[in-house]
Amino acid sequence: MRGNNIMGIIFANLHERLISELTEVRIMGAVPFGGKYRLIDFPLSNMVNSGINKVGVITKINYQSIMDHIGNGKAWDLSRKQGGLFILPPFTDQSNYSNRVSTLNSIRPFLENSTQEYVVLSDCDTICNIDYQDVCRKHLENGADITLVYKRDQLPEKLHDPTVLSFDSKGKVIDVQISNNITGSCSYYTNMLFIKRELLMELIDKCISKNTLNFKRDIIQGEYKDLNIYGYELKGFSPVITSMSDYFNANMALMNEDIRADLFNSDNPIYTKVRDDMPTKYGLGSKVKNSLIANGCIIEGEVDNCVLFKGVHIGKGTKVSNCVIMQDTKIGADSNLSYVIVDKDVTVKDERTLMGYLSYPVYISKGSVV
Amino acid sequence: MYPKQEVVAMLLAGGQGSRLGVLTQKLAKPAVPFGGKYRIIDFPLSNCVNSGIDAVGVLTQYQPLVLNEYIGSGQPWDLDGNNSGVSVLSPYQQVKGADWYSGTANAIYQNINYIDRYNPDYVVILSGDHIYKMDYSKMIAEHKANNADCTIAVIDVPLAEASRFGIMNTNPDGSIYEFEEKPEKPKSTNASMGIYVFSYDKLRKYLIEDEETEGSSHDFGKDILPKMLADGLKMYAYQFEGYWKDVGTIDSLWESNMDLLDPNVPLDLTDESWKIYSRNPVVPPQYIAETAEVQNSLIADGCSISGSVDFSVLFSNVVVKPGAVVQDSIIMPGSVIEEGAVVQYAIVSENTVIGKNAVVGARPETIVDKDQWGIAVIGDNLKIGAGAKIAPKAMVSKDVEEVEE
């Protein structure tokens, strides 16, 4: 059943600095992932699969790539008369998108004019398949004011302002620490939360009036004693992308069958923009092992342990191993690539050798000619 | 009244395609999957859009559910305009009674109202069972330049095969003086491709006349075209060069799929300027496992390959388990080839499971009596039990039980 009392808001450009190479020409939400997706496909699809029919996508600057990708929302069934997809760029002069609180304040008319009782907020840095209906259920059971989606794991090294939560036996938040110096396994907030729309607006108003504009410090840390804030544990495959190496590892993790079954769960599929590529052509003498490959590729060489996006060509006699190769990149004949992240539309000519290392994959930027 | 469309295309998609046996038991021939992700109808529909034709009527009759659902709003082909796009036209009840489409011409006749709404100058008649890429706008331009009443697309076929086709005998200027249906001794090798451009005023008149002619089979090839020729209308042949294949039989369907693997066959589906559009399933990319061996094959997203695949076309969500072998075969969406199974020279329809160590089809060189050899065909949603053997040329429409060893 589609349609419920929840709306979604996605912050499509936060955390870019952590993977600055990939975000030089695009915002976080438009970062390619997993052979045919962009990071925003995950929160968008999760919301749609949870019955959410109205989604606002907040974009601050350089949002051409995301507009091109999501278009009118048709691929997510969000091209609708009731609700649908709303792209929310800043309104010149009057908007302040410099922090999360001011941004939410700037889109206040969008929040005010909505009729849904609840709001889900999400960023694009966590790749997961989550059912917000279940979050909603727990939220109501707990009688919560806010439900924070958290992960129980080691803190990702470069996570900005990690917000570590402690709970009582019922899952209510009883302590909030914002610190990078926590070692070992802990429960940290994933920038996904569930809240009543009215309450969100109230809290934003309060912050604006007091000029306390840090969402984590002034809302989560500032309010947990007065409000009922509960946690919802995010289980299953759910990497948070805070570095190029996280990005590389998250792509490589898709070689695991269980992880694919979890993330690309066919009951809650991940939607993405369609491009009408033909199926992938494996040439005579091609050798492919342990790789995830999208439609539209032409493979004549050897591919081992790689993610190939749509329309990649691998020439004769070429060997690529442990690489992430994005859309429409063409690699000529007799080349050798290992531990390389190759961005879109790159041309690697014949007889080239590019080598990175597991802990430091080499990155080739969009449109380069090697 | 709709804004005028200079050209309206009418796509005949009502045929049963009985020669495709189990493949068309539940769906019409134009809906048969082709080339790893397409259905046959994607080719004429994409040709229309790429040729700038915005109004397309699709005439359906036999088993229309899958086809209707597939065409839907026409959005995958950009055929969902405000005042134009694709319309599915099925037979309907009229004041004087209800009729099935009794022939190709009758099907168009019954939808004169649909064509009239667009007030077109030209109507293109297409069929839904050919694989080809063609710019109809060039054919229409030639039709206009010749000031023709009817233009028929022809392709040069080998003389030995010419007697299987309708042959157009032409004067040096391309005008047609004779039309021979499957002649024993063909005078030329210009075979009709079943693609016609008509000036609509003439077509309309002849359709109405034909409808009133007693004993007419209401068929373009048998009735309308010969009548037009006899009446001295200006009829021209339009020479088409390129890949064109009628996929009306198991052998030709199999061959045409295999042609996609041959770099020398001029059917390039990667050409950005003439894309073939289709409805795309929502599936993750394909995964090729450590144990897999894949060569010279076309594989679609959603597949998971752990066995050996060679000279084959695999549609979305096909699973080939470790130790399974697929050679020279076509596996349609969602089918599973279990461990140790061997599938050779076969077409396996959708969502069928080939059990462990089962053997489907055989290589021609292993069969002594060549008359016994052919492509094995397995229907959709079937279960072929472990260890079962399906002979070459077999056509399987029921589950096959496990064979104990």
In short:
The complex is a heterodimer of chains A (370) and B (405). With 370 residues, chain A is of the alpha/beta class. Chain A is built from 9 helices and 26 strands.
Reconstruct the topology from this structure:
The complex is a heterodimer of chains A (370) and B (405).
Chain A: E1 6-11, E2 32-33, E3 37-38, H1 41-49, E4 54-58, H2 64-70, E5 84-88, H3 100-106, H4 108-112, E6 118-123, H5 132-142, E7 146-154, E8 163-167, E9 173-178, E10 185-196, H6 197-210, H7 215-223, E11 229-233, H8 244-252, H9 257-263, E12 280-282, E13 287-289, E14 291-293, E15 298-299, E16 302-304, E17 307-308, E18 313-314, E19 319-321, E20 324-325, E21 330-331, E22 336-338, E23 340-342, E24 347-348, E25 353-355, E26 362-364
Parallel strand pairs in A: 1-4, 1-6, 4-5, 7-11, 12-15, 13-16, 14-17, 15-18, 16-19, 17-20, 18-21, 19-22, 20-23, 21-24, 22-25, 23-26
Antiparallel strand pairs in A: 2-3, 6-10, 7-10, 8-9, 8-10
Chain B: E1 7-12, E2 33-34, E3 38-39, H1 42-50, E4 55-59, H2 65-71, E5 85-89, E6 93-94, E7 97-98, H3 104-109, H4 112-118, E8 122-127, E9 130-132, H5 136-145, E10 150-156, E11 166-170, E12 176-181, E13 190-199, H6 200-212, H7 220-230, E14 235-240, E15 244-246, H8 250-259, E16 286-288, E17 293-295, E18 297-299, E19 304-305, E20 308-310, E21 313-314, E22 319-320, E23 325-327, E24 330-331, E25 336-337, E26 342-344, E27 346-348, E28 353-354, E29 359-360, E30 376-378, E31 383-384, E32 389-390, E33 395-396
Question: Can you describe what's shown?
Answer:
The complex is a heterodimer of chains A (about 375) and B (about 400). Chain A is α/β, with parallel strands linked by helices and about 375 residues long. Helix content of chain A is about 20%, strand content about 30%. Chain A is built from 9 helices and 26 strands. In chain A, the strands form 5 sheets. In chain A, strands 1, 4, 5, 6, 7, 8, 9, 10 and 11 form a 9-stranded mixed beta sheet that branches. Chain A has a 5-stranded parallel beta sheet with strand order 12-15-18-21-24, with no helix packed on it. The N and C termini of chain A lie far apart (about 50 Å). The model of chain A has no long low-confidence stretch (mean pLDDT about 90). Chain B has about 400 residues and is α/β, with parallel strands linked by helices. In chain B, about 20% of the residues lie in helices and about 30% in strands. Chain B has 8 helices and 33 strands. In chain B, the strands form 8 sheets. A 7-stranded mixed beta sheet of chain B has the order 5-4-1-8-13-10-14, with helices on both faces. In chain B, strands 16-19-22-25-28-31 form a 6-stranded parallel beta sheet, with no helix packed on it. In chain B, strand 11 and strand 12 form a beta hairpin. The radius of gyration of chain B is 23 Å and the shape is globular. The chains are: A alpha/beta (about 375), B alpha/beta (about 400). The interface between A and B is large, with 38 and 37 residues.
